[in-house]
Design a protein that fits this description.
Layout: H1 16-42, H2 46-70, H3 78-91, H4 93-116, H5 122-138, H6 142-145, H7 147-172, H8 175-202, H9 210-234, H10 238-263, H11 268-297
Helix pairs in contact: 1-2, 1-3, 1-4, 2-5, 3-4, 4-5, 7-8, 7-9, 7-10, 7-11, 8-9, 9-10, 10-11
Length: 301
Amino acid sequence: MERTANEAGPSGEPGPQLKAQLEQMQRGEITEHHIYKRLAVAQKRPENAQVLERIAADELRHYHVWSKHTRREIGPDRRRVTLYYWISRILGLTFGIKLMERGEEQAQARYGRLGALGVDVSAVLEDEDRHEQALIGMLDEERLRYIGSIVLGLNDALVELTGALAGFTLALQDTRLIALSGTITGIAAALSMGASEYLSTKSEETNKEPLKASVYTGIAYILTVIALIAPYLFLDNYYACLAWALTAAVLIIAAFNYYISVVKDEPFRKRFLEMAAVSLGVAGFSFLVGFVARALLGVEV
């Protein structure tokens, strides 16, 4: 009887398709081994480095499990190693690792299919489950402790400044005046929000430092102000500037909510739509207020 491409041949070697799957798993394991090794070296906290070293060793052992079936050595995906290393360094260890772990969920589904074909994957699956628990236990980053402060600054800046810019755009109809008014409004609001976050954090029983919390809030606010004001500094058409500012707001909301959805394991769509609806709704209402105020007061700039 003719064997299928997934079945083992008379010598016990896997068929072509099964071997290709095994080689794919083997490359994935050695790639993640190198990622964890590089991240371990970069850690300042010894306990984090030790956990990453142990996981790297497990990934190397998994690589050797698959190599017994493929009977060949396979190198890592160097581009993926570099990508996830720098994602983790720039956007945080939690984000980088959890983004990579999303790929491991797909790998675990493939493990199940390999098990159905007679390949022993129980030890590998047990290690993968242990990896996830170990990672959840070790990932304690400062930026995540202050994520609430960042959300406060970002959300308030998006809601308040998109509304203010929409109102200023129709009321003033001059990009330089709009940029000046928006900058003054934004900086004043950033200082106010930072001060409020400082006092709020100081009155709470939390592991956050009040000064750091206020700095995170203020910086998030100011960076958002810069992103929204920028079009008014480079374009002459104030309606085009408003369109670019609103587009930038939606992109910021999308990027930030994707980040939160990864590190917090929360749904992306609901948070994104809610935040975008609030920001754009306030902007639309403010634009209407600017139109009415200009008409009633008879102001011409």
